[in-house]
Amino acid sequence: MNKCVINGGITYQQVRCPSNQARKEPTLEELNAAEKTRETLVIRLAQCSMSIIQAARRVPVWFQPFSAQAVQNKPYPPRPPMQITGQCHCGAITFNATVDPKKVLVCHCTDCQRISGAPFRAVLPTPVEDVTISGTAKHYVKVADSGNRRAQAFCAECGTQLYATEADAPKVLNLRLGCVNERAELVPQKQMWGESAIPWLGQLPDLPVHAKGVTSPLISPGIARSTD
Ligand SMILES: [Zn+2]
Ligand SMILES: [Zn+2]
Questions:
Q1: Ligand 1 center to 207 CA (angstroms)
Q2: 22 C-alpha vs ligand 1 centroid, how far in Å?
Q3: How far is CA 87 from the centre of its chain?
Q4: Residue 124 needs a FRET pair 20 to 30 A away by CA distance; which of 81, 105, 156, 162 works?
């Protein structure tokens, strides 16, 4: 039996089908249940020859690590509360916070895509009283069609995006995961605005992965495998 540990600590097991007939692929409900309980999810494959990597590609994109090295020996993110630190690229703004790792989420909305300049954005919603910021962020206020006003905070010096919050009476800071030092341990727990998600995100695991720049060596497909 092959065992495959995927980012987030969920264990997938390849189970041989004795008759080669039973077909059971993981349903969204099963994936969600496994996500909640962190228990082993058994995937029975349609064909015994199908590799576990192919099966794993059917799970939501954020289950799929970009680098095997990044996830090997990584425990599931610690339970709350967790102390984190972060800063902008130039260092003019730093922050520390007490956060709940279960709240990390990925947003695929078009505003996040455009404002971040990235295919999606990951955020860590944290009550404002749990965040201490040093330095002054500049705010760009985004006004939604509904009239909702969101302040998008960034460093005026280097442009690093730091958080978004209610423009008029901040209650929760959606800390941008990219500027949090502990980001590798903060695994997203859900995704939203999937309707506008970039469709090629799911193809990333099929692409070659270089350890550093494109002239550096390739690394493994991104899924740590062990055999028992
Ligand atoms: Zn800066
Ligand atoms: Zn968004």
A1: 32
A2: 56
A3: 19
A4: 156
- Report whether 5 contacts 11 (CB < 8 A): yes
pLDDT digits (tens, 9 = 90+) for 102-115: 999 999 999 999 99
- Nearest ligand to the CA of 108 is 2
How far apart are the CA of 26 and the centre of ligand 2, in A?
28
Give the model confidence (pLDDT) of 165-210 as tens digits: 999 999 999 999 999 999 999 999 999 999 999 999 999 888 888 8
Six-digit token pair at 141?
Answer: 């206020």
Return the SS3 of 161: strand
- Which ligand places an atom closest to the C-alpha of 105? 2
Q: List all residues 6 or more positions away from 36 whose beta carbon is below 8 Å from its beta carbon.
A: none
Q: Are 14 and 1 in contact (CB under 8 A)?
A: yes
Q: How far is CA 59 from the centre of its chain?
A: 13
- Kindly identify the ligand whose nearest atom is closest to the C-alpha of 121: 2
* Bridge pairing between strands 82-87 and 94-99: antiparallel
